[in-house]
Amino acid sequence: MPSFKTTIRVSWADTDAAQVVHFSNFFRFFEKTEEEFYRSLGFNFDQIVSKYNIWLPRVEAYCQFKKPAKFDNLLEIELTVGEIREKAVKYLFKVRNKGTAETIAEGYLTVVSASKQTGKAIEIPEELKKQLKFFAADRNP
Amino acid sequence: MPSFKTTIRVSWADTDAAQVVHFSNFFRFFEKTEEEFYRSLGFNFDQIVSKYNIWLPRVEAYCQFKKPAKFDNLLEIELTVGEIREKAVKYLFKVRNKGTAETIAEGYLTVVSASKQTGKAIEIPEELKKQLKFFAADRNP
Amino acid sequence: MPSFKTTIRVSWADTDAAQVVHFSNFFRFFEKTEEEFYRSLGFNFDQIVSKYNIWLPRVEAYCQFKKPAKFDNLLEIELTVGEIREKAVKYLFKVRNKGTAETIAEGYLTVVSASKQTGKAIEIPEELKKQLKFFAADRNP
Amino acid sequence: MPSFKTTIRVSWADTDAAQVVHFSNFFRFFEKTEEEFYRSLGFNFDQIVSKYNIWLPRVEAYCQFKKPAKFDNLLEIELTVGEIREKAVKYLFKVRNKGTAETIAEGYLTVVSASKQTGKAIEIPEELKKQLKFFAADRNP
Fold first, then answer.
1. Is residue C139 one of the residues assigned to a domain?
2. Has residue D116 been placed in a domain?
3. Chains contacting chain B through 3 or more C-beta pairs under 8 A
4. pLDDT bucket at B26, cuts 50 / 70 / 90
């Protein structure tokens, strides 16, 4: 099952007074992983905006927190393409502690293709969808 | 239906390059509302920690984003007690634009009662549960 | 000496693993205070942008941290207009713990008036400067 | 002149509605660089805390913003040891756009060695000071 993986080192600023990563930061880690996933496909958010004239706003975000992550932990974040709809795509994320291999958190982001002019949901550009499908297809032989 | 409401003014630092509130900040708004809800009940996180020797870590977070919120918008956030289990409570949140009355976002946080020593889930202190139940009971006559 | 004051309640998300407000958040508190200062003058960032066609980017930021601020502390932030130059204004900030009256932090932001088109520094709009001067004049009779 | 360098990719969450990195995030970039500097010396914040029983709170932070940094920019951050006092050390930071080589921002953090028990400033542990001095000595032959 192909997937995209990246690592994030927990910074002091990511922690809170419980001495663990503040839960809201996992959503930033998810998005950062999505950004690097696009980069691995050969483009970035900005290029998607200028090339296809769309934004990719998030319409849903979910995360289940299983184990705390602490300062200096090296986290491995795995992205898989969960579901591709006409105008939206759901990315699944799994966060592991790279040192202990424990699963820290799991969740998803549902991202919609929105016209930059009208803000309304429009079809995901064919070229982009192909790359995502190819990616998703590989995982479900 | 009783509920707890607070308002949050969107700050420049809450926005992102799409000129709307970054989605991760809604989770911070949820938590800030929960903090003020506790304060309205007569205590705060720290007092819960010192009095009952528990933390209240989040085990689940979800949000659906319906409309963008922009800089300077005054947001009204409504908290209701969704479900009280033995060791966990689910808070529901609704974010409205106070100017337009539009619903901006809806979601929840599931919070567990965890022993400060062992980190394991333990029963919600009776006194705290009573306050939450009272609150929840009121809404479901 | 006239000044503008606002209060900010320390949220859990503002803290770090040292169980105090992360130092970077004081800069967000400064800016939030500046935003409310503009609002008290009858406008906001966005209105400045649309009316005068300028941004107000920060060119300098400084803070000295004297005492830690903790979760749930109520902070009082005082803004004074330090210096008005042709194209820039320096805002001074003092953060106090409202409960103990201790000074927590002191610092400044230097903000420049920049053309939205070219990005270059341009004169502060006369009308805005007058309001700031009036404010500063009051304090130095 | 020896120095420590690291790179940081600008994430969407780092930006604000002016479509540039929010100024407060440069302070987080500074600290992240300091964290990686310690790591390059063979330890981390937590190990400093447990080994020497000290925290390293920031007592001063300054930054001058010269050029905007944008989404997806690759930033190179350079740390040099500016000044070593008995109980404090000043780290200097320079942020460059790795693509264009432009200087984006420059600033410093003054960090104090504080007893974990009393919170009071105490001498920087000899072993740590030696590493910093060695580092600083190298740069000023």
1. no
2. yes
3. A, C, D
4. very high
Classify residue D140: in a domain, yes or no: no
- Within a domain: residue B139? no
Mean pLDDT of D56-80: 96
Cβ B71–C46 below 8 Å, yes or no? Answer: yes
Residue A51, φ and ψ in degrees, nearest 5 = -75, -45
Instruction: For strands A114-115 and A74-84, give the pairing.
Output: unpaired
- Identify the burial level of C48 via C-beta atoms within 10 angstroms of its C-beta, where 0-12 means exposed, 13-18 middle and 19 or more buried: middle
3-state SS string over chain D? CCCEEEEEECCHHHECCCCCECCHHHHHHHHHHHHHHHHHHCCCHHHHHHHHCEECCEEEEEEEECCCCCCCCEEEEEEEEEEECCCEEEEEEEEEECCCCCEEEEEEEEEECEECCCCCECCCCHHHHHHHHHHHHHHCC
Q: What part of B 90-119 touches C (C-beta under 8 Å)? A: none
Q: What is the mean pLDDT of residues A127-138?
A: 78
pLDDT-derived band at B52, boundaries 50, 70, 90: confident
Residue from B25, D77, B40, D95 nearest C28 by CA: B25
How many CB atoms within 10 Å of residue B59?
Answer: 19
CATH number at residue B62: 3.10.129.10
Q: How many domains does chain A have?
A: 1
Range of the domain at A69: 4-133
The stretch B66-91 carries a mean pLDDT of: 95
Mean pLDDT over D76-92 rounds to: 95
Query: What is the structure's pLDDT at A111?
Result: 97
| Terminal-to-terminal C-alpha distance of chain D | 9
- Which amino acid, A18? A
pTM of the model: 0.95
Nearest to D54 by CA among D38, D69, D65: D38
CA dist., res. D39 & res. C69, Å (int): 28
Distance between CA C76 and CA D7 in Å, rounded? 36
Instruction: Collect all residues of chain A within an 8 Å Cβ-Cβ radius of residue C16.
Output: 12-13, 15-17
Q: Tell which residue, A81, A62, A73, has the closest CA to residue A102.
A: A73
Which DSSP state fits D89? Answer: E
* Percentage of chain B exceeding pLDDT 70: 95
Mutate to test the interface with B, among D22, D26, D72 (most CBs of B within 10 A): D22
Q: What is the ipTM of this complex?
A: 0.93
Q: Identify residue A57 by its one-letter amino acid code.
A: P
